[in-house]
Design brief:
Blueprint lengths: L4 E11 L11 E3 L10 E3 L14 E6 L9 E8 L4 E4 L11 E4 L2 E6 L2 E2 L3 E3 L3 E9 L4 E6 L5 E2 L5 E8 L5 E8 L4 E8 L5 E6 L5 E10 L1 E18 L3 E7 L7 E2 L6 E2 L9 E7 L15 H8 L7 E4 L5 E14 L2 E10 L10 H4 L3
Antiparallel strand pairs: 1-19, 1-24, 2-7, 3-6, 4-5, 4-7, 5-6, 8-12, 9-11, 10-11, 11-19, 12-18, 13-18, 14-17, 14-19, 15-16, 15-18, 20-23, 21-22, 23-26, 24-25, 25-26
Length: 357
């Protein structure tokens, strides 16, 4: 059995659910009618410089011409002199007083044509590209600076797969000094693949770039996590992995027995029993053994999940339910209970993909 490990101290997590493209974006109101050709939006509150919004997306929330409501289009130009966004054509002309959002992400294309990014199975970014091979490049990048120190948040983790054998994934980061670091070199895998890298130290991380390169196809990104690191359990006495089945047992009318309803696969549970007297259970600044799990429990309101490698042969997103510290007769024990975390249906993956086997 290999040592289990778990990530801790999230600096930034991109976990792609429905609506991710406009998550936390501001609402704007048009100040004038757009072009009759349906390709411009005018808003005097947009005071940024020329081309600032290029590559972002615009989505109408309310509109005099109701056909535009809910539509999303790519922005191809921003004119600071006239406060005008030029974009792919909406169904109808934009009008003064319409409301819209601008995306929290933008695309950059260099030989690749990227479709509007979507969410697949309620859980994955689907980045679809059209290209002709060679050095074609295209990526999606978060718009607002992340602005965190790589001296504190030292590691980046990811999970991806490609729809075919020719399109390629690549992940790069950009720092506030405009320097970049490629953390996942251009590569292809048609099976879900996890990875991690150490970020260049003493930098300020601003942007993450998720690529779909080289050829036509879709790259799926499950998550990108920037965190303080991963804690390896120095001694796990036992590991229980329970991929549970939801039988939905209920009593039928006028029946003594219960009828199972076979409701499918429930969230898997992992229980790890640890001996805190065996091995080094403290990080550099910790006071007590196992303190990392108090850190994770305390931060659970803002960290949706951790990446758990169980030592049993599976890796998955997991939530720590309750760390149970036991101090009895000079024996220090810790029991950790984790539940699988997922947003989409389990049917979208095989059991081996789902549990990282």
């Amino acid at each position: 059995m290999t040592e289990p490990s778990i990530t801790y101290g999230h600096g930034k997590l991109y976990d792609f659910e429905e609506g991710f493209l406009f998550k936390d974006s501001s609402i704007y109101t048009t100040s004038d009618d757009g072009a009759v050709g349906k390709t411009t939006t005018v808003d005097a509150s947009l005071t940024q410089g020329d081309d600032y919004w290029n590559g972002c997306f615009i989505k109408y929330l309310s509109a005099e011409n109701t056909d535009n409501i809910g539509e999303t289009k790519e922005i191809t130009d921003f004119d600071a002199g006239t406060d005008t966004l030029t974009h792919d054509a909406f169904t109808a002309q934009t009008k003064s007083g319409d409301t819209f959002k601008l995306s929290a992400w933008k695309i950059v294309e260099d030989g690749q044509t990227l479709d509007t990014p979507t969410c697949s199975n309620e859980d994955y970014l689907a980045l679809t590209a059209s290209g002709t091979g060679g050095n074609a490049d295209g990526y999606l990048q978060n718009f607002t600076d992340i602005d965190i120190s790589t001296a504190i948040y030292t590691k980046i983790y990811w999970r991806y797969k490609c729809s075919n054998a020719t399109v390629k994934a690549k992940i790069a980061v950009e720092f506030d000094d405009a320097n970049t670091q490629t953390v996942l070199a251009e590569t292809n895998s048609t099976a879900w693949t996890t990875g991690s890298a150490t970020l260049t130290t003493a930098k300020t991380l601003d942007h993450i770039r998720l690529h779909a390169n080289t050829n036509t196809g879709t790259v799926y990104y499950d998550y990108v996590l920037v965190c303080k690191g991963a804690f390896s359990f120095p001694n796990a006495e036992s590991i229980q992995f329970s991929p549970r089945v939801d039988l939905g047992r209920s009593a039928g009318m006028s029946r003594w027995g219960r009828m199972p309803q076979t409701l499918g696969s429930d969230d898997a549970m992992t229980i790890i029993d640890c001996d805190l007297d065996n091995g080094t259970w403290t990080r550099t600044t910790d006071t007590i053994a196992g303190e990392v799990f108090l850190d994770i429990a305390h931060s659970s309101h803002e960290e949706a999940w951790q990446l758990l490698t169980s030592g049993h042969g599976h890796t998955m997103k997991a939530r720590l339910e309750s760390p149970n510290f036991q101090y009895k007769n000079d024996i220090h024990l810790l029991t950790l209970t984790f539940y699988e975390y997922r947003l989409g249906s389990a049917d979208a993956e095989s059991y081996a993909e789902r549990w990282g086997i």
